[in-house]
Specification:
Layout lengths: L1 H64 L16 H4 L6 E10 L4 H10 L8 E2 L14 E8 L11 E2 L4 H13 L3 E2 L3 E2 L7 E9 L9 E8 H4 L9 E6 L6 E5 L5 E5 L8 E7 L2 E9 L3 H76 L6 H24 L5 E2 L15 E4 L4 E2 L1 H16 L13 E9 L6 E9 L11 H15 L2 E6 L3 E9 H5 L1 H11 L8
GO biological process, one term: signal transduction
InterPro entries: CHASE_dom (IPR006189), CHASE_sf (IPR042240), Sig_transdc_His_kinase_HWE (IPR011102)
GO molecular function, one term: ATP binding
Length: 552
């Protein structure tokens, strides 16, 4: 059994190690694959964004190249670009022509705006406050034309952006650097409009050093840089150039909002794109936790491995246990047959002993010349006493009989008169048979009539155990009061033989009987080791014990 446990334990340990190794490898592979897939998707998205930005910036450059000698106050300047600027319908919002007007050109510009059909041709600031032309001493940047024209956009021409913090900075840098420049993220068309980016391209006439104006294109930030679908592996955010640590993100409706990067986890990767002479940093946040997903996959693999290991160990243990149980059952069957043979031999021996005793009882009781009625009564009583002790021995599996149990009324005449005292020791089967017949003989010959003083005899049966352990001695004393040699029935020949010779020899002791002035006394002394007979008890215990297989 121990060896089987070691084998199953080794299989279980091997299965656990293999399952753990498989889970570890799967964890690393899943993590690596997720990271590779995420990095590839991020690179593709960043490349697409850069291509989109390059196309928009190229459009601004081409548009500015078409106006080499424009008239700054000419109406409908953007008409030739109408087909081009509508090619980018997804993220394009509005295109504009911002002329750089000198103070003496303001009146003509106002008339041109009115002639183009715009409802508010007055030259005014970016927040729609009127401007006094007499107060203007330097050129100002005024929106002269735009596309597309709608009820909302028609109100914009005539605005000056010199005081606009975002557009003024963009136009100043484009004028100085003489190239396309992108603005900071800003609400488009109105204060609560969609957040977007404006790119301005300067229009420089031939032979001039200063631009005559600027062609501007406005794009929604959400669809320009932050486009993302629900099936993508990541969410993208743009670092806000206006606020340190801020990020711009777009929801599924394209609404852009601001958040602080420190409030959430760090991005999984960052990429830089160029647009309008500026670098823009995109932060990519994985939508799924690769480490947690890899751990979950590893746990599943490990659980499957453990389950398979448990099934293998259970199956192996079941088969091995059944084989072991079958082997033990065979051993038990062999042992049982051996024990049964020993029991039969022991039973034959005991039956022969009992039959010999009964034969002796019958022979001695029915001797020639005995009274048939008295003999029949004694024979039945003696056989009854033997039957009683055999029943008691059977109940105890021949482990011995309590000495007080031999004084039961069903086996001993006048049991109600007998006062029994002494330790309730358990005597051996051999001693029990002899003592049972001895007690019957003593009780059956006690006076059944009235004594000389008119009283029934009073009987005491007492025994003690004296001496130290190993040398203990059993003392038994039977005394019948209120009787005498004249009134007591004489002992039979069988009784005398039993009292004086058979019982003492069976117990390895001595006996004596005598009359006192008031009683009849029988004393028996024997070594305790023959009364108990441990060798007989051990032999009986081995026979009656259940058969157990030998441990391998």
């Amino acid at each position: 059994m121990v060896r089987l446990g070691f084998i199953i334990g080794f299989i279980a340990l091997l299965g656990v190690l293999l399952s753990g190794l498989a889970a570890y490898r799967v964890h690393d592979q899943e993590l690596a694959l997720d990271r590779i897939a995420l990095a590839r998707a991020i690179d593709v998205h960043a490349s697409l964004v850069q291509d989109r930005l390059t196309e928009r910036e190229l459009l601004a450059r081409v548009a500015s190249g078409l106006f080499r000698t424009p008239s700054v106050i000419k109406p409908n300047v953007l008409e030739p670009l109408r087909s081009a600027i509508y090619a980018f319908k997804t993220d394009f919002v509005v295109a504009g022509w911002i002329a750089r007007l000198k103070p003496n050109e303001l009146a003509a510009a106002q008339a041109a705006i009115a002639g183009a059909g715009f409802p508010n041709p007055q030259i005014r600031s970016y927040d729609d406050k009127p401007i006094n032309p007499a107060e203007i001493t330097q050129p100002i940047d005024v929106l002269m034309d735009l596309e597309p024209r709608s009820n909302e956009t028609k109100t914009l021409p005539g605005r000056s952006y010199d005081q606009d913090p975002v557009r003024s900075a963009m136009l100043t840098r484009a004028r100085v650097e003489k190239r396309s420049v992108a603005s900071d993220p800003v609400p488009l068309i109105r204060g609560n409009g969609a957040v977007g980016i404006i790119v301005a391209a300067p229009v420089i006439p031939e032979g001039a050093t200063e631009p005559a104006g600027f062609v501007t294109f406005s794009y929604e930030l959400a669809s320009l840089m932050l486009t993302n679908d629900d099936m993508s592996l990541f969410a993208v955010a743009l670092r806000d150039p206006r606020k340190e640590g801020g990020e711009l993100i777009a929801n599924d409706q394209g609404v852009v909002s601001t958040r602080m990067a420190a409030d959430g986890p760090a991005p999984s990767a960052t990429r830089t794109v160029s647009f309008g002479g500026r670098d823009w940093q995109l932060g990519y946040y994985a939508k799924t936790n690769s480490a947690r997903r890899a751990e979950q996959t590893a746990i599943i693999v490990a659980a499957i491995g453990f389950a398979i290991t448990a099934m293998v160990c259970g199956l192996f243990g079941y088969v091995a246990y059944n084989n072991l149980r079958l082997s033990r059952e065979i051993q038990v069957r062999i042992g049982f047959e051996r024990r049964l043979t020993a029991v039969i031999d022991e039973l034959n021996h005991r039956v022969k002993n009992i039959l010999a005793v009964i034969q002796s009882i019958v022979t001695r009781t029915l001797r020639h010349g005995s009274d048939i009625d008295i003999a029949r009564e004694l024979l039945i009583g003696r056989i009854h006493a033997m039957s009683n002790v055999v029943s008691l021995l059977s109940e105890s599996q021949w482990q011995g009989v309590k000495l007080k149990g031999l004084f039961e009324a069903r086996a001993i005449p006048h049991a109600d008169r007998i006062a029994v005292t002494g330790p309730d020791i358990a005597v051996s089967a051999r001693a029990a048979q002899s003592l049972s017949l001895l007690f019957f003989e003593l009780a059956s010959h006690s006076d059944e009539g009235l004594s000389l003083v008119g009283k029934h005899p009073h009987i005491t049966a007492a025994w003690t155990v004296t001496g130290e352990e190993g040398d203990e001695v059993f003392h038994f004393r039977w005394e019948e009061f209120n009787t005498s040699e004249a009134t007591r029935r004489p002992d039979s020949d069988f009784g005398l033989i039993l009292l004086d010779r058979v019982a003492p020899e069976a117990l390895g002791g001595t006996a004596k009987r005598f009359f006192t002035d008031v009683s009849y006394v029988y004393e028996l002394t024997a070594p305790m080791e023959t009364v108990v007979d441990m060798t007989e008890r051990d032999r009986t215990d081995k026979i009656s014990a259940p058969v157990r297989p030998v441990r391998s």
